[in-house]
């Protein structure tokens, strides 16, 4: 089964980055007990003050899709939406490296 | 000390993505013994067949800079360069989340 990854770029409305960051950190904390969520890191952009990036890795595309359907996720999205000016995402397939476990032993 | 992160987008010359991926996976394997390298994941782009993304997290900006000066890194870059059509990077500051350890306990 292939892992599924995403770089999600959130542009906050002016002055709302830290409030949005707090919601995303809550979602990350909730994901601690979700085995299928392997990585959920909140990052500040280095050069764009209103931008947050979330680095996500899930055990499969289906696990990610299932997470979006959870009540807790939908509630978090509902709270975050008023703070967000825009979202873009880059979908990726992790194939190996340091920091995660890959079934091919890499 | 703040972590330092980067999304590095490598566009391979046509047909060279897998050869480039192999070099990057070797670099990731070499990083297994480098404590300051917390994440070094090679990813295939979902929609662009010549594109690889590398997700990197280092314990500090200085640790990342030091890694670039190592003979092994320079040798890998030398082997990779002929395979690469372009590189872009997005520098980020990881602030919390699941999958890494943050000194603020998040």
Automatic annotation (TrEMBL), chains A, B:
The keyword Oxidoreductase applies. Keywords: Monooxygenase, Oxidoreductase. It comes from the Bacteria. Residues 4-92 form the ABM domain. PROSITE patterns: ABM (PS51725). One of its GO terms (molecular function) is monooxygenase activity. The keyword Ion transport does not apply. InterPro entries: ABM_dom, Dimeric_a/b-barrel. Pfam families: ABM (PF03992). This is Quinol monooxygenase YgiN.
